[in-house]
What we know:
Blueprint: E1 2-6, H1 11-22, E2 26-30, H2 46-53, E3 57-60, H3 68-74, H4 78-98, E4 102-107, H5 116-130, E5 134-138, E6 141-142, H6 153-164, E7 166-168, E8 176-178, E9 180-181, H7 182-194, E10 206-207, E11 212-214, H8 215-225, E12 230-232, H9 262-272
Parallel strand pairs: 1-2, 1-3, 3-4, 4-5, 5-10, 6-9, 7-12
Antiparallel strand pairs: 8-11
Amino acid sequence: MKILILGSSGQIGSALTEFCKNKGFNVEEFDIVNTPNEDLRFEKNRLLYEKMESSDFVFFLAFDVGGSRYLKNYQHEYQFLSNNTRLMERTFELLRQLEKPFIFASSQMSNMSFSPYGLLKALGEAYTRSLNGVIVKFWNVYGVERDLNKSHVITDFIYQARNNKVIKMLTNGQEQRQFLHADDCSQCLLSLALSFNQINKAEELHITSFEWNSILKVAEVVSRLYPGTSIVPAVISDDVQKNIVNEPNNNILKYWTPLINLDEGIAKVNSKL
């Protein structure tokens, strides 16, 4: 099977690319980080057409997104909205024309209508349902990140602890999240691709660890990797998800089971940064 990964240089895409190659699959990469020609916002992108036409399966992971700091600063801006609506329109149109089986990467925030990011992911889900693709909802997947302007909380905390021996938090850290290592996520995505024809496209597929941890707990785990690191919580509470707590659907456990716990996962990311 020849696999096309859109967003192949992101923290999930890069992990999935490596994972699939190690399993012996022929992988086509596509990411604006590689070359401007791999910009999904382009209308009638010939390179995208050629790569998608020659592929057997597509992972649609590409999105203009980052961690909570990035979303807080940019998700209400015109360019953020334009980037994501254009890349979805161009990509879904080709998926329609070429009738390729695909997985669309959504988010557990897609039901949070106050969030432009959540609304955009909900729109992507509607496109996916119209094309009989598979929707997966990611719950705080973490892995190696190189673009520090878009880094998520674990990468941010590691760099703070390593460079400054202090972790300055954006919130009071009481908000609860479910974190999943990118290697676990990659195993899950490949399992779903191989089971594509057996999946009920209407069922909820939440890719998560099914373990709740506070942001403060994450800071504590990171601080133990760098003894002497202090943790400085902020006064404010979470205002990206506004303390809304979804409960994950466990349908995904029919296809895959997470294996990497938080301590192990953070140590793995730390060793590669």
